[in-house]
Amino acid sequence: MRQGTKSKILDAAERLFAERGFADTSLRLITSHAEVNLASVNYHFGSKKELIQAVLMRYLEQFMPLVDEAMLQHIEADNAPNLKQVFSSFLDPLLEINKVKKHGTATFLLLLGRGYTDSQGHLRRFITHHFGEVLSHFQQAVRRAYPELSDSDIFWRLHFTLGTVVFTMASSTALKDIASADFNEDINTEALIKKVIPYLAAGVGAPI
Amino acid sequence: MRQGTKSKILDAAERLFAERGFADTSLRLITSHAEVNLASVNYHFGSKKELIQAVLMRYLEQFMPLVDEAMLQHIEADNAPNLKQVFSSFLDPLLEINKVKKHGTATFLLLLGRGYTDSQGHLRRFITHHFGEVLSHFQQAVRRAYPELSDSDIFWRLHFTLGTVVFTMASSTALKDIASADFNEDINTEALIKKVIPYLAAGVGAPI
DNA sequence: GTCTATAGTCGGATAGAC
DNA sequence: GTCTATCCGACTATAGAC
After folding, report:
1. CA B46, C1' C15: Å apart?
2. pLDDT digits (tens, 9 = 90+) for A32-51
């Protein structure tokens, strides 16, 4: 067969989770879209909770090392980076996901946002656990670029940034429709990201 | 009795919706916290969906007129406002909610965020319907303060701003805990909002 | 590994007595 | 308006045949 059951489940699950959230996506819906048997989810993943983590993990495994590597370069380089460079390092891996998988960037950011805001908190722990090291390196890179900013302020502004990006993605379908109707603008994910960069860079670089 | 059934349901529902999201909050959980009968929800509100809208409406009715009034003043004043003034007008009504109700500001922003990102989209329509006019006046006020910015850019930057605030609120419990552990900072909602203002103002005011 | 069948739970909603 | 009792659909998860 062209694609294994496990992979078909992951593909269908990530799309539906991103569209509808975790709670509103049943295993029945996933397996019917994936055209596999209902019981196969529990056979391959054990439970719905573990399926959710597996979906997230597939992205985190690809994304985090790329970001981390770039951050380490900023930290260890002879010249201090500027904020714009640090941000680009966050961005290239994001767009890289789009090359590997159609709508991959938007999907990943949506899942990240849902993982943060959905109810129970086990997902937040799961994400921050796999995000913590990279976050720390990002913090060090920003500190080199903008030494006047305290670690606390870096921490907060990074999460403001994450919030901006994640929320924008989460409501991007609706926002794109409005922009299309009101301003005659057709925006894709990459254009949206390019719109948000000046906003984020100015925010992180704002005077204290 | 001290408080009517309808009001007890609304109070319990808004707290639980903000904490756990709409999908993960059952009517049974709400009525047990409110100490009312399960059937009373359908008697007073008709359905769970209508209860959710009633919860949001109670905040929107209080918040929107205050913001709208302030925006109209900026639009009609003789002198053009600056961005910071426009933002303050958004902020005072937010903090006003905190006076009427404990944690009201955080709760409202959480509900707003969940309404935007939760699955079906009927809530997004409900919110934008009651938000549209104010949004339009906000847009006009920003245009006066920063005429170089196109309407499209104002639109996008306003939603970036909404995203920042809403996501920050949605994960504020977790973030406050981290800040407390890592930086020895005890942050309340008002302090958090004051941290986010420079970020937002710089973002909205960023060069194009 | 994949299927059917079903156990067991929980959800929203409502009928009808008071 | 409030209660009990219940319907009925949907869900996760698993046992067991193939």
Report:
1. 15
2. 999 999 999 999 999 999 99
